[in-house]
Amino acid sequence: MDSLTIATSTLADPITTRTLSDQATERLREAIQTGALAPGDLLVERVLAGQLGMSRVPVREAIQRLTEEGLVKRAASRGAVVYLPPPSEVEEITAIRIVLEQFVAERVTQLWAPAAETTLTALVDRMREGVRARDRHRLSRLDAEFHAATWRIAAHGVLMEMVSSLRRRVARLLDETVGLMADDALPGIIDAHENLMAVFRAGDAVEARDEMRRHIETGQARILNVYKGRYQP
Amino acid sequence: MDSLTIATSTLADPITTRTLSDQATERLREAIQTGALAPGDLLVERVLAGQLGMSRVPVREAIQRLTEEGLVKRAASRGAVVYLPPPSEVEEITAIRIVLEQFVAERVTQLWAPAAETTLTALVDRMREGVRARDRHRLSRLDAEFHAATWRIAAHGVLMEMVSSLRRRVARLLDETVGLMADDALPGIIDAHENLMAVFRAGDAVEARDEMRRHIETGQARILNVYKGRYQP
DNA sequence: TTTTGGTATACTGCTAACAACTTACTGCCG
DNA sequence: CGGCAGTAAGTTGTTAGCAGTATACCAAAA
Predict the structure, then answer these.
(1) Phi/psi at B42 (5° precision)
(2) DSSP codes joined into one string, B31-57
(3) CB–CB of B137/B34 below 8 Å?
(4) How does pLDDT run across A85-132, given as a tens digit for each residue?
(5) Strand ranges inside A79-220, DSSP E
(6) What's the rounded mean pLDDT across residues B151-160?
(7) What's the whole-model pTM score?
(8) Does any strand D atom come closer than 7 Å to the Cβ of B51?
């Protein structure tokens, strides 16, 4: 506990004091969102504990959190499986996302400021590079970042918490869907986000709500097109 | 493992197969909502485990769930305390509740059916008895039941999950507030719910959204009147 | 009187081990 | 050949205990 130790840990990784449960949660959430853990995969506490180099309890807590986030479902006394929401649930989630994102859009028009313009413009510029590179995964990530940025602009803790939680529940599907888009459809992503910025800038709350609804519905339609019918419980 | 054991447990408590974690969660949530555990109270795992007759882990899991529900807050390596949302957070929660409950109202007008009429009428009738008896706690419970009934009518799992979670976060405050209402203000609760039923019945979604917004705002105003300024972190 | 150093307490985070339960398999009997 | 019972393996739910760390208190010195 000399000053060196303190300095090292403080400088190197200020919040490495994070618990193993937190680390497990993060690792598992990431594994699910990247597809390393695919829908239907069994999450066996003992196995994951071994892979993560910890005991079962932190893993157990992580699985519990992910269950409450809706990414994992507990099968009755059988363990937990990575959850694949049926199309009907995707529709439900989207319906609520629309309602909440419209509220976000309304607030963003009201709170619009130069800083917002800068942040979102930068993200759209990076999207353009993504389109040039045909890098669908990167586009998907930037799309997520764009919306996260709007949530921050909306400056509403509870709203952000709920809308981000909902988006995570369909994040994998959105990402997969973007991965399937044709080359000539990619520029449409740029247009969509430029349209959003335009209505934010214009300051018309009603128009902003409409544009946001269209935007979310487009994403859902893309998901359901490839997903309905192909879904197997 | 004989049939007697099975039969006994089955009859005595059909879902006693519930885990200790579930039971602990339920008991603690109830204690918080009744005020048996007051805001600021420390939740010490060892103590609660003793009181509930179980070991620390199920209690720990329960505390974690309640933390994610927003009823409890973890103090840094200090334990967990029953959370008292500051007025600003009450306002945030209410803002989202309005948005979601308006969606509920819209769906209820669309899905209105004789069964809905029966259910809600019965609840309002029971409220009238509550008003006659000046039983504020009962009125508060019936108000919660009325809204829970509308959520069921709206038939939307994700919506119900989110709106009920939000309401739980201010349930204690709502209950306390109703407890402070003057006798001659109590009939207003009946009127409010009759108005809601009227617009549901009329089938006008826009009017239903408006009425619901007013209804939620009234509740929030009551909370903030007695709560703003009196709040101490 | 105030501040600082040290000590003791008490809590959480985690590990390892136990017990109950479910499921799948294997062998036997009809 | 098919069905059923019994057994074995594997997984979760739970317990008890250990280690690390923050906090509070108390004493001593400036």
Answers:
(1) -80, 135
(2) HHHHTSS-TT-EE-HHHHHHHHTS-HH
(3) no
(4) 999 999 999 999 999 999 999 999 999 999 999 999 999 999 999 999
(5) 79-82
(6) 98
(7) 0.89
(8) no
Query: Taking the C1' atom of C13, which residue's CA lies nearest?
Result: A19
Strand pairing partners for A43? A80
Give me the CA A20–C1' C5 separation in Å, rounded.
Answer: 33
Which nucleotide minimizes the distance between its C1' and the CA of B19?
A: D13
* Token representation of residue A67: 């269950």
∠ at Cα B54 (B48, B58), nearest 5°? Answer: 80
pLDDT of residue B17 exceeding 70 = no
Counts of helices then strands in chain B (DSSP H, E) = 10, 3
Q: Give which of A26, A21, A124, A32 is closest to A72, Cα–Cα.
A: A32
Which tokens belong to B40?
A: 């600021």
What element of type H or E holds B80?
A: strand B79-82
Q: What is the dihedral of CA A133, A134, A137, A138, to 10 degrees?
A: 30
Q: Closest chain A residue to B166 measured between Cα atoms?
A: A158
Place of tokens 């957070």: B89
Min mean pLDDT across A73-77, B14-18, B158-162, B172-176 is at B14-18
Looking at residues B147-172, what average pLDDT do you find?
Answer: 97
Cβ of residue A51 lies below 7 Å from strand C: no
Residue B67 confidence (pLDDT) above 70: yes
Q: What are the tokens at B78?
A: 């200090």
Over residues B81-93, the pLDDT tens digits come to: 999 999 999 999 9
Closest CA to A200 of A104, A123, A122: A104
Tell me whether strands B79-82 and B42-43 are parallel, antiparallel or unpaired.
antiparallel
- pLDDT confidence of residue B77: 64
Residues of A near B (Cβ–Cβ under 8 Å) read 57, 60-61, 64-65, 68, 89, 92-93, 95-96, 99-100, 103, 156-159, 162, 166
Segment B210-230 mean pLDDT: 93
pLDDT lower than 70: segments of chain A? 1-17, 77, 233
Would you put residue A12 in left (φ > 0), alpha (ψ -120 to 50) or beta?
Answer: alpha
Spanning CA of A46 to C1' of C23, the rounded length in angstroms is 18
B100 to A96: CB separation less than 8 angstroms, yes or no: yes
